[in-house]
TrEMBL record, chain A:
GO terms for cellular component: plasma membrane. It comes from Planktosalinus lacus. The chain crosses the membrane at residues 6-21, 28-49, 75-95. Gene3D superfamilies: 1.10.287.3510. The lineage of its organism: Bacteria, Pseudomonadati, Bacteroidota, Flavobacteriia, Flavobacteriales. Its main location: membrane. InterPro entries: CPA3_antiporter_subunitC, NUOK/Mnh_C1-like. This is Cation:proton antiporter. Keywords: Cell membrane, Membrane, Transmembrane, Transmembrane helix. It is found in: Cell membrane. It is a multi-pass membrane protein. Belongs to the CPA3 antiporters (TC 2.A.63) subunit C family.
UniProtKB/TrEMBL annotation, chain B:
The keyword Cell membrane applies. Keywords: Antiport, Cell membrane, Ion transport, Membrane, Transmembrane, Transmembrane helix, Transport. GO terms for biological process: monoatomic ion transport. One of its GO terms (molecular function) is antiporter activity. One of its GO terms (cellular component) is plasma membrane. Residues 680-759 form the MrpA C-terminal/MbhE domain. It is a multi-pass membrane protein. Residues 605-670 form the MrpA C-terminal/MbhD domain. The lineage of its organism: Bacteria, Pseudomonadati, Bacteroidota, Flavobacteriia, Flavobacteriales. This is Na(+)/H(+) antiporter subunit A. It is found in: Cell membrane; Membrane. It comes from Planktosalinus lacus. Its main location: membrane.
Length: 117, 768
């Protein structure tokens, strides 16, 4: 499973980057989301995946009696998911607003302030 | 002594609050500052002449060996007296010269900083603090040259001067650091003790070149001389003070200071003689082609600086005596001539030497000052200049085989200097007074007294050279590493070869003065050579550098996000990829992996299809939907592999994102295919390489052993300390509670942003 997952993470990264390199703003956001998902999965995988043993201490005990999935990467990823949602929602609304003002979705027509001449 | 140096800085600081008082009648009071310092330093004369050296050390940055060490010896004393003495006259002169000027307080502020910094340069024993004061003089000079900041030429000259002297300052710093490294000290007097160590060091050549670079840029030696004529854009008091009497001599001072520790080698002497000789002859010839009084004086100043460097290069005791005397001679007559020029400019409004004549009828005391200065400049007895010139010839004549050649060069220079001095000090006052100047009148006494004092001093010392002999010249020569105690300076040496040479100099000089007429035609003639002059070369280098930077910036900072991303990823891929190729084991331990089940494979398959569909679909709605499927598949993976919290979060967030997207989508333009095929293939290749790199990286990491103490800590303490059984939750809300709090704050800000973006209604007026 780990092997396949690693390939899939590579696929997520590759497609995320490819979408980020497009000129359309919408594609840029989609690429960002894909890349974020890839990163989350990468952290998850590198923390070693364990099947069917969630990091929850059994009802009657104070400690883990058995092996358990690593809770640290999970906590990290949870934070990452929520934060990236903040970013995505803001970016999506910003696209809408930007389109209303400049009437384009093309990044190349939005770079005038950043251009050095 | 530290207080004496700081006085100037404090004075300038006070002007920030007291500036408006100084602009009025109180301007003259500021002259008390240099006067007080002059008297303060004057009282050391007795101690210095008896051979004492006064040192004071204050700790500054002891850990780096940078102390504020100050030494007052013969060399320093000459310079401090010049700085404060001429400073006093210039401060007084300015009170009338710039009377009522809008920024008079600023002007005094810069002058005060300059004076303090200059004192710091000549008194510092620590080479690092010397460097700092050195740079401060460059900076204050920059502000003073650009004082008329509304004129483009002024600003340009200021920048040019700053860049040349600033580069020199950096060379000085480099040289200082190497010296400190070799000798293990930054104290100049302690370096003297390690003279052999420095001379034998393999870095000796580099040190000498760096110190020369600093001295030659500051003291306007060929080929760095060109900033000085430009610096004449400054108000005349500045030209008098900085660009003739003091600052430009800082380079000479540096050479004098380092002669005992670095000098007396083939490299040192030959370079100084060559550069000095080229500079003095080159600049002296240039005076023939100028019609602006300040231009003439600027070139004759460069020539005088050349003579000084040349004399230091000769390295004999006679040459050092001549150098010390000539510094004083030059300061006295050149400051006078500049001040006189300032008065002429002030009263007639022109500095064109071809137009000026007959002014003695309206400006008699000024004419007397000019005449006396010209006499001293020309080296006509009984002036101090006569002694100076004799000593120069004596030094060159007694210099080995090349003595005759060097004497000839010195004579040529002196002849032309005489011409320049007469042109500036006598020509404007003789002849017929043109009608246009009849209305010119005497300026306030504060303006004409200072040049008169200096000019009279130039004659008095000539008649009574013993005034300076014991008190200044002897200790200075001793400080340069020669026995100075038996030096005798006399006006009359009897009839000898040197007197003959003097007579020739004066005769030929007068001949040129009477026969040669400066004209604009000549000035234009020499302008044709500007293209190959060092100035144009430096300027075109500067221009090319600017253009080059512009091109590079344009290339890197091109405004296209995708290029920035591509470059970053490309570097990442190359660097990481290279290291991976070197160190990868390429062994994958399949046994350690968990086994596959059918539904897992199906999930991954769905996900892969979702990703590819997102990328390649033409429909935007489909892309968003496929992206949602990918998110759901990830959430399933979380479920399979023991992460229920993640699965829930991913599920809800994914859903929300898709909904938000769809809500906004219908307002957006069509999903256009903007890039061409070539760009897509290029980006595709980069993306695939990047993705594969991540895969390889992940597999490599999986092959490494893993151990985390943090995990154990959380697992053991989740219930014991935090009373929670879901460890992920406990980490988030308890152990890392503050982080989560911050996260909530971030989300709140994002939410406010989203809300205000949705609510924002731009009217047509605000939109632009």
């Amino acid at each position: 499973m780990e092997f396949l997952l690693a390939i899939l993470i590579g696929l997520l990264y590759a497609s995320g980057l490819y979408m980020m390199l497009r000129r359309s703003l919408v594609k840029l956001i989609i690429g960002l989301i894909l890349l974020g998902n890839g990163a989350n999965l990468l952290i998850f995988l590198l923390g070693r995946i364990t099947k069917g043993k969630p990091p929850i201490i059994p009802e009657e005990s104070k400690f883990f009696l058995d092996a358990y999935a690593d809770p640290v990467p999970q906590a990290l990823i949870l934070t990452a998911i929520v934060i990236s949602f903040g970013l995505q929602s803001f970016a999506i609304v910003l696209i809408k607003r930007a389109y209303k003002v400049v009437k384009t979705d093309d990044l190349d027509q939005m770079n005038s302030t950043d251009e050095f001449s | 002594m530290l207080t004496a140096i700081l006085t100037g800085f404090i004075f300038s600081l006070l002007l920030v609050v007291a500036g408006k008082y100084i602009k009025g009648k109180a301007a003259i009071l500021s002259a008390l500052v240099p006067l007080g310092l002059f008297i303060y330093f004057l009282q050391f004369t007795r101690q210095i002449s008896s051979g004492e050296i006064i040192t004071k050390t204050y700790e500054w940055v002891p850990s780096l060996g940078v102390n504020l060490g100050f030494t007052l010896d013969g060399i320093s004393l000459i310079f401090t007296l010049m700085i404060t003495g001429i400073g006093f006259l210039v401060f007084a002169y300015t009170a009338t010269y710039l009377k009522g000027h809008e920024y008079l307080d600023r002007f005094y502020g810069y002058l005060g900083i300059f004076m303090a910094a200059m004192l710091g340069v000549v008194l510092s024993d620590n080479i690092i603090s010397l460097f700092i004061f050195w740079e401060l003089t460059s900076i204050s000079s920059f502000f003073l040259i650009g004082f008329n900041n509304k004129e483009k030429a002024s600003r340009k000259s200021a920048v040019l001067a700053l860049s040349i002297t600033g580069i020199g300052g950096l060379l000085l710093l480099a040289g200082a650091l190497i010296l400190g490294n070799i000798t293990g000290t930054y104290s100049i007097s302690e370096m003297l003790l390690s003279k052999d160590l420095i001379a034998e060091s393999s870095h000796y050549i580099i040190i000498v070149i760096l110190i020369f670079g600093a001295a030659f840029t500051k003291s306007a030696q060929f080929p760095f001389h060109f900033w000085l004529p430009g610096a004449m854009k400054a108000p005349t008091p500045v030209s008098t003070y900085l660009h003739s009497a003091t600052m430009v001599k800082a380079g000479v001072y540096l050479l004098m200071r380092f002669t005992p520790s670095l000098g007396n080698t083939e490299l040192w002497n030959t370079t100084l003689i060559t550069v000095g000789a080229i500079t003095m002859v080159y600049a002296a010839i240039h005076t023939l082609f100028r019609t602006d009084l300040k231009g003439i004086l600027a070139y004759s100043t460069i020539a005088a600086l050349g003579i000084l460097v040349f004399l230091i290069g000769l390295g004999t005791r006679e040459a050092f005596v001549a150098a010390c005397v000539f510094i004083l001679v030059h300061a006295l007559y050149k400051a006078t001539l500049f001040l006189v020029t300032g008065i002429i400019d002030h009263e007639t409004g022109t500095r064109d030497v071809t137009r000026l004549s007959g002014l003695r009828k309206v400006l008699l005391p000024v004419a007397i000052a000019g005449f006396l200065a010209a006499i001293s400049n020309a080296g006509i007895p009984p002036s101090f200049g006569f002694i100076g010139k004799d000593l120069i010839y004596e030094a060159t004549l007694h210099f080995g085989n090349t003595g005759v050649l060097l004497t000839a060069l010195a004579i040529i220079t002196n002849i032309l200097l005489l011409y320049a001095g007469f042109l500036a000090g006598i020509k404007p006052f003789t002849g017929k007074l043109p009608q246009s100047f009849e209305k010119a009148h005497m300026p306030g006494f504060l303006m004409w007294i200072p040049p008169l004092i200096l000019a009279i001093l130039g004659i008095t010392i000539g008649v009574f050279p013993s005034i300076v002999q014991d008190s200044l010249i002897q200790p200075a020569v001793t400080a340069m590493g020669q026995n100075g105690s038996e030096i005798q300076i006399k006006l009359w040496h009897g009839f000898n070869l040197i007197l003959g040479l003097s007579a020739i100099t004066i005769g030929v000089g007068l001949l040129i003065y009477f026969l040669f007429k400066p004209s604009l035609k000549l000035e234009k003639g020499i302008a044709k050579f500007d293209k190959i002059a060092p100035k144009s070369i430096v300027e075109s280098i500067g221009y090319g550098f600017g253009q080059g930077s512009k091109k590079v910036t344009g290339l890197i900072q091109n405004g296209y996000l995708r290029y920035y991303v591509s470059v970053i990823i490309l570097f990442l891929v190359l660097l990481t990829g290279y290291t991976l190729l070197q160190n990868t084991k390429y062994v994958i331990d399949y046994d350690s992996f968990s086994e596959l089940t059918v539904y897992e494979v199906l999930t991954l398959l769905v996900m892969a299809v979702g990703i590819l569909y997102t990328v390649f679909t033409r429909s935007r709605l489909a892309a968003v939907a496929a992206m949602g499927v990918v998110g759901l598949a990830i959430s399933l993976i979380f479920v399979y592999y023991s992460a229920p919290d993640l699965a829930m979060t991913q599920f809800s967030i994914d859903t929300l994102t898709v909904i938000l997207f769809v809500l906004v989508l219908y307002r957006l333009p069509k999903y256009l295919k903007l890039s061409d095929r070539k760009a897509r293939i290029k980006d595709g290749i980069l993306s695939v390489v990047f993705g594969s790199l991540i895969t390889v990286l992940a597999l490599e990491v999986l092959g490494e052993p893993q151990g985390s103490q943090i995990t154990d800590f959380y697992a053991e303490n989740a219930y014991v300390l935090a009373k929670g059984k879901n460890v992920v939750n406990v980490i988030l809300v308890d152990f890392r509670g503050i982080d989560t709090f911050m996260e909530i704050a971030v989300l709140t800000i994002a939410a406010i942003g989203v809300f205000s973006l949705l609510k924002l209604r731009l009217t047509k007026k605000n939109r632009k």
